[in-house]
Design brief:
The chain is mainly alpha-helical and 95 residues long. The protein is 51% helix and 11% strand. The chain contains four helices and two strands. A two-stranded antiparallel ribbon has the order 1-2.
Length: 95
């Protein structure tokens, strides 16, 4: 899972389909805390609200802030076209 792309990768994506957003969406849904306040009609874990929010923060932070390296230079980037709020809202609507 990588953030912003260099010119070669953007050209490659022009000819192939990029699944980064779909993969990040699946990861977010997989690692959402199984807390009764987040999920309905599913098996939940015994945790308090603070623990659930800390776990959610960690998942969102991991998927929303990535480090990339190009030619030995490292920088922090945010992935393009991935909106955590949209994923969570769509999940709430369809569950």
């Amino acid at each position: 899972m990588y953030g912003d792309k260099n010119l070669l990768n953007r050209m490659w994506d022009y000819f192939t389909r990029d699944n980064t957003v779909q993969y990040r969406t699946k990861a977010l849904l997989c690692f959402l805390p199984k807390w009764r306040g987040f999920l309905v009609n599913e098996t939940t874990e015994n945790m308090d609200a603070t623990e659930a929010i800390v776990k959610l923060y960690n998942v969102v932070n991991c998927l929303s802030n990535v480090w990339i390296e190009e030619w030995g230079s490292r920088r922090k980037m945010q992935p393009i076209n991935f909106d955590v709020r949209k994923v969570i809202c769509l999940t709430a609507v369809y569950n």
